[in-house]
TrEMBL record:
Residues 73-262 form the ABC transmembrane type-1 domain. It comes from the Bacteria. Belongs to the binding-protein-dependent transport system permease family. GO terms for cellular component: plasma membrane. One of its GO terms (biological process) is transmembrane transport. The lineage of its organism: Bacteria, Bacillati, Bacillota, Bacilli, Lactobacillales. Its main location: membrane. Pfam families: BPD_transp_1 (PF00528). It is a multi-pass membrane protein. This is Carbohydrate ABC transporter permease. InterPro entries: MetI-like (IPR000515), MetI-like_sf (IPR035906). Keywords: Cell membrane, Membrane, Transmembrane, Transmembrane helix, Transport. SUPFAM superfamilies: MetI-like (SSF161098). The chain crosses the membrane at residues 12-33, 72-96, 108-126, 138-158, 243-262.
Length: 277
């Protein structure tokens, strides 16, 4: 009886902690949506107003027309799709080489590349900018895309997934006359679908939300992406919080929908890759 009581109490505590964590994570999103429906004075009122007296849906229309968000959306979609497809292609090829092929210095090369993951991304901003500037690519799509066509984090994740596929399958395919290229795309990639989907979604979210690099390499509205476009609501006169939150809402919604539809693949892929965090 005492053991059952302890189990019940333990479950209640676990559920309470999980619910508390969920509420804590949802509060910023609730505040964002609530603020997007407020009037200007309500956004700075103390104590803060959690639910506006009148829902001002017109804030979303005003936010959309405050900057060329249509162009920002197009730019973000182009950059996100091309970057994700390019990075996925290069990563799959590299992961296959490191997991299944045998060549001189494979482990040494892998460890060197693995060490690059310890370099802060901020340290690469200036070298990348100088390189692209000398190539006269600033304020172009290649400037937004080229530096991210390869990612060793993605290579590492897919290598772990590919290594989980038994080598016997690879040898059997080779005996049957399948080339490395055919084995990769007809057998290995389908078997690692969950891991590939996981890294794809993570890359899409990362690219969609990128701010620093697009801000640095673009200098016109014609090339800027959505996160950079949010600066339109912050001027020397102050920040228009209700419009900023309205714009932030329709910037975030596509990624939330994407994650909700594909979350099971993300969880399965990361679990198979042996990554935690």
């Amino acid at each position: 009886m005492k053991l059952r009581t302890k189990q019940i109490i333990s479950k209640i505590l676990i559920y309470a902690i999980v619910i508390l964590g969920a509420i804590t994570m949802l509060i910023p999103f609730f505040w964002m949506i609530s603020t997007s429906l407020k009037s200007g004075p309500e956004t700075i009122k103390i104590p803060p107003i959690w639910i506006p007296k009148v829902f001002r849906w017109s804030n979303y229309v005003a936010a959309w027309h405050a900057a060329p968000f249509g162009q920002y959306f197009i730019n973000s979609i182009i950059v996100t799709v091309v970057t994700t497809v390019g990075q996925l292609f290069t990563s799959i090829l590299a992961a296959f080489a490191f997991s299944k092929l045998k060549f001189w210095g494979k482990n040494v090369i892998f460890m060197i590349f693995l060490g690059t993951m310890m370099i802060p991304s901020e340290m690469l901003i200036i070298p990348n900018f100088v390189t692209l500037s000398r190539m006269h690519l600033i304020n172009t799509y290649p400037a937004l895309i080229l530096p991210y066509l390869a990612s060793f984090f993605t290579v590492f994740t897919l290598r772990q997934a590919f290594q989980a596929v038994p080598d016997q399958i690879y040898y059997a395919a080779k005996i049957d006359g399948a080339s490395d290229w055919r084995f990769l795309w007809k057998i290995l990639v389908p078997l690692s679908k969950s891991s590939i989907t996981a890294v794809t979604v993570l890359q899409v979210i990362s690219c969609w939300n990128a701010f620093m690099w697009p801000l640095i390499v673009t200098n016109s509205n014609a090339m800027r992406t959505l996160p950079v476009g949010l600066q339109a609501f912050t001027t020397d006169a102050g920040t228009t919080y209700q419009l900023l939150m309205a714009a932030s809402t329709f910037v975030i919604i596509p990624m939330v929908i994407l994650y909700l539809f594909l979350q099971k693949y993300i969880i399965a892929g990361i679990s198979k890759a042996g990554l935690k965090g």
